[in-house]
Amino acid sequence: MRKEINNLKPVRLRKFSKFPKSFLLLLSYLFFYQNCQQPTEGCLDVRATNFDVTASKGCETQCVCTYPYLITSTDYFSGVNSFSVNTTYKNDQGDSFRIISAQMYLSDFQLINDKNETYRTIDSVALTRETDTIKVLNNYALVGKSNGFDFTIGSFNGTGNFTKVKFRVGLDDVAAKTIASKMPSTHPLSIKTDSMYISSSKQYIFNKFVIAKGLNFKDTLRLNITTPKDLTLTTKLTFKEGFDAKIPLKINYLTFFSGVNFSQSENIILQKIVDNTSSAISIQ
Predict the structure, then answer these.
(1) If 0-12 CB within 10 Å is exposed, 13-18 middle and 19+ buried, where does residue 85 land?
(2) Mean residue pLDDT across the chain
(3) Contact 137, 145 (CB under 8 A)
(4) For the ranges 5-9, 129-133, 245-249, the one whose mean pLDDT is highest
(5) Which residues pair with 239 in a beta bridge?
(6) Terminus-to-terminus CA distance in the chain, angstroms?
(7) Which of 52, 62, 69, 189 could be joined to 41 by an S-S link, Cβ 3.0–4.6 Å?
(8) Which residues pair with 125 in a beta bridge?
(9) Quick one: average pLDDT of 45-53?
(10) What CA–CA distance (Å, rounded) separates 253 from 78?
(11) In terms of C-beta density within 10 A (0-12 exposed, 13-18 middle, 19 or more buried), how is residue 163 classed?
């Protein structure tokens, strides 16, 4: 038995040394790379426009997530036809009139999805008032045909299916006390050429119409509405991740003047226009 053991050949442990040096170097590189690599910072929110699929860590100091915009796309009508200024229209009493200009504030947009969740804009703006400066959601648009058709309201991160849109024609008490001259010139609440801000009374106009009426349309009626109107519109809107969310609004200017009698007092006319607002604005 001892003899047989002595005749056993020694085991050679040299096969590992036959691996190519390049393979060993590759293993060493992978080992040190995994242990020394720094995490890459980037936006990991798929709703953002700068979502980074290659990032290994969310934004902290080197980046911020940026989101699409909430936009209202507005078309203007007079009955079934496109609206145009200085076109002659007739009210219910058969009186001819022309709308020389018209514009209104829309604010506090809220979108309710099919899960009954409410989304608003997510960026903020500082409003300077007589007594203080307050930061609020940037959720304002000044619409009117002379101003254009698409209006950016603010950054928005809501996605999916939405069934209701809520907003205010006018401003809330906080925004209504803003000093317009203190706002950036590009903001809807700033001083405009055809201003919606009355400096002498430090007051915003929420909805304004300038009407030409009478013989040869020589009489001018300025209708400055300072009463807000909250609207809730039923809709079917789907917003995708990383894309702007657009609310397609239809404004029918003739509907504002349904039942309006220009021979009545201005206060009665203004209240009638406020009452008609719910019917004058809809989702396309």
Answers:
(1) middle
(2) 88
(3) no
(4) 245-249
(5) 160
(6) 100
(7) 62
(8) 136
(9) 93
(10) 5
(11) middle
Q: Residue 22 has what pLDDT? A: 61
Residues 56, 157: Cα–Cα separation, whole Å: 22
Task: Indicate the residue type of 87.
Answer: T
> Residue 191: beta bridge partners?
none
Residues contacting 258, CB < 8 A, separation 6+:
92, 276, 279
Cα–Cα distance measured from residue 178 to residue 105, given in angstroms and rounded to the nearest whole number: 14
Contact 138, 121 (CB under 8 A): yes
For 31-40, 153-162, 180-189, which range has the lowest pLDDT when averaged over its residues? Answer: 31-40
Q: Give yes or no for a contact between 170 and 230, defined as CB atoms under 8 angstroms apart.
A: no
Residue 232 to residue 168: CA distance in whole angstroms: 9
Token digits of residue 189: 């609440």
In contact, 111 and 157? CB cutoff 8 Å: no
DSSP codes, 108-124? EEEEEETTS-EE----E
Q: Where are the domains of the chain?
A: 71-283
- Surface-to-core class of residue 98, CB atoms within 10 Å of its CB (0-12 exposed, 13-18 middle, 19+ buried): middle
Q: Which residue has the tokens 């021979």?
A: 263
Sign of CA dihedral 244, 247, 253, 257: negative
Torsion, Cα 269 275 280 284, to 10 degrees, reads 170
Q: What is the dihedral of CA 102, 108, 112, 113, to 10 degrees?
A: 90
Compute the distance between CA of residue 271 and CA of residue 269 in angstroms, rounded to an integer.
6
